[in-house]
Specification:
4-stranded antiparallel β-sheet, 25% strand, 1 helix, 115 residues, Arylsulfatase, C-terminal domain, alpha+beta, globular
């Protein structure tokens, strides 16, 4: 997918991830471009999940990460609280929300019109 600023981005959504920073299990979704990566995690109390459970619309993440992949390719420094990056982080939050909502709508369409 290409963003409004011409950057190619990819999005991913996982559930049941075990992350040290967010008590397991945690569901996560992310958006990545060549230069930046935004990840957000949601606590989950379900040991197993179905695709219908991966609907994060209206939920606030329990933990977020933002990485500068050019200066920090090993993703060691979380920049989520960096004051000078809040506008860019807000853009990535919105992109992630848009991808997430599109995934939910696609799933609903598939359920409404099974093949």
């Amino acid at each position: 997918m290409t963003s409004s600023d011409g950057e190619v981005e990819s999005a991913c959504f996982y559930a049941g991830m075990k992350m040290m920073s967010c008590p397991p299990p945690a569901d996560m979704e992310a958006v990545r471009t060549k230069d930046w990566k935004y990840v957000r995690y949601f606590r989950s109390d379900k040991p197993q999940y179905g695709e219908e459970d991966v609907d994060f619309r209206g939920r606030q993440p329990d933990f977020e990460q933002f990485f500068d992949l050019t200066d920090d390719p090993g993703e060691e420094v979380n920049l989520i609280a960096e004051p000078g990056l809040q506008e860019r982080i807000g853009d990535f939050r919105e992109r992630c929300s848009q991808h997430s909502a599109a995934l939910v709508l696609a799933r609903q369409d598939t359920q409404a019109f099974p093949r």
